[in-house]
Amino acid sequence: MKIEATALPGVLLLTPAVYRDDRGAFCETFNLRQMTEAGLPSNWVQDNFSLSKKNVLRGIHYQILQPQGKLVRVTHGAVLDVAVDLRRSSPEFGRHVAVELSGENGLMLWIPEGFGHAFLVLSEVAGFAYKVTDYYAPKGERTIVWDDPELAIAWPVAEGDLIVSEKDRKGARLRDAEVFA
Questions:
Q1: Could you tell me the maximum CA-CA distance found in the chain, to the nearest angstrom?
Q2: CB-count exposure of residue 135 (10 Å: 0-12, 13-18, 19+)
Q3: Every domain of the chain and the residues it spans
């Protein structure tokens, strides 16, 4: 497995070795030894899966209480996956990285605690799987609005075509959000 830094310190792009033949493909999506050597956590507490249709935008989510690190991947379909630095003390505060993850390319993204997370479904349907380092804590859940001009995320779809939950539409602006120290 190849593990590379992204433009945001701490956010890593993981490229598993994919073995293909006439029957299909095989890849290892988790290897404790390799991930621990790369500085990723070794104590995962929950695996999650969501299924979303084209133009669904989820996020920008994070937990201020019980912060979660996330290892995310797409099982089938494709998404634009976004990590946003929400650590006020970071020189990268408010910056983001965006990576296309798909079942075909097999890429995974490690998003550490202190970052917000969002994704936009690019394919007709996408299966999204992720491991987290702490349990879901509804009282600590926060959302930053996906179209905050301060973040300037270039979502590759017309706003009128987006499917966004009411909760996500009511997210805070970065300047008003409760973020990490």
A1: 53
A2: exposed
A3: 2-176
Residue entry with tokens 């008003």: 176
Pick the CATH number of 2-176 from 3.10.129.10, 3.40.50.1950, 2.120.10.30, 2.60.120.10: 2.60.120.10
- Establish whether the linkage from the previous residue to 3 is cis, with ω within 30° of 0: no
State the Cα–Cα distance between residues 8 and 19, nearest whole angstrom. 30
Which of the residue ranges 10-19, 52-61, 67-76 would you say has the lowest mean pLDDT? 10-19
Hey, which residues are catalytic here? 61, 130
The type of residue at 142 is R
Specify the 3-state DSSP secondary structure of 130: strand
Torsion angle of the four alpha carbons 94, 158, 162, 172, in this order, in degrees rounded to the nearest 10: 30
The confidence score (pLDDT) of residue 128 equals 97
Q: In whole angstroms, what is the distance from residue 1 CA to residue 15 CA? A: 6
- Residue 169's contacts (CB-CB under 8 Å, 6 or more residues apart) are 145
Determine which helix (DSSP H) or strand (DSSP E) holds 9, and give its type and residue range.
Answer: none
Residue 42: pLDDT over 90:
no
- Report which DSSP code applies to 171: P
User: What average pLDDT does range 163-167 have in this prediction?
Assistant: 97
Taking only the tens place, the pLDDT of each residue in 2-30 is 999 999 999 999 998 888 899 988 888 88
